[in-house]
Amino acid sequence: MIINQAALKKISNLEGQTCFGCGEKNPFGLHMQFLTDEQRVYSLVTVPTAMAGWDQTVHGGIISTILDEIMGWTVIYLLKKIGVTKSMTVDFMKPVHVGKQLTVVGSIEESRSERQIIVTGAIYADGDTLCARATGDFAAMPAKTAVRLGVMSSEYMERFLPVLQQSERA
């Protein structure tokens, strides 16, 4: 999938984030950043050689992590809720190579209820080659519920609220 980056809005993340998928401060992480057209969430990511499985192919667990991360951020940005993965199915279709830029896309597939959301994610290489896709069943919740359930601390939630409340017009 070829995207026009100039037409997309950058989604802000929490400064100092240490998440393996999106944390800028995680020295071993993927450092994913996110963009949106207000209907989908995108990320352009290049996986380092240290995350290879066989020879120069990205390890399947890393591919799954990338898909989980794009789906989680799709819930965060498009629904303004915390998304927690309940289950996820991944289809590996083509090898994904380290050191090559990948386009990752997340979409809301279906809202089964206010709290149960079906999200999809896809990884493309070389512009339009679909390499992997996932469908995830996510529990979507307000930040205060995430604190009550122990998903995050109240201090973290307070810091994360501006990310969760990003305006579509900003």
Q: How would you describe the overall organization of this protein?
A:
By secondary structure, the chain is of the alpha+beta class. It is 22% helix and 34% strand. The chain has three helices and seven strands. It has helices at residues 60-79, 143-148, 154-164; strands at 9-11, 34-36, 41-46, 82-92, 101-111, 116-125, 129-141. Strands 1-2-3-5-6-7-4 form a seven-stranded antiparallel sheet. The longest helix has 20 residues, at 60-79. It is globular. The model has no long low-confidence stretch (mean pLDDT 91).
Which properties best describe this structure?
170 residues; alpha+beta; 7-stranded antiparallel β-sheet; 7 strands; 22% helix; globular
Summarize the SSE layout with pairings:
Elements: E1 9-11, E2 34-36, E3 41-46, H1 60-79, E4 82-92, E5 101-111, E6 116-125, E7 129-141, H2 143-148, H3 154-164
What would the principal axes of the Cα set say about the shape? globular
The total count of strands amounts to 7
Distance between the termini: 25 Å
The largest beta-sheet arranges its strands as 1-2-3-5-6-7-4
Low-confidence stretches: none
Mean pLDDT: 91
Output the radius of gyration. 15 Å
Strand content: 25-35%
Structural class: alpha+beta
User: Helical proportion?
Assistant: 10-25%
Number of helices: 3
SSE string, helices as H and strands as E? EEEHEEEEHH
Biggest β-sheet strands, sense, barrel? 7 strands, antiparallel
Write a brief caption for the model.
The chain has helices at 60-79, 143-148, 154-164; strands at 9-11, 34-36, 41-46, 82-92, 101-111, 116-125, 129-141.
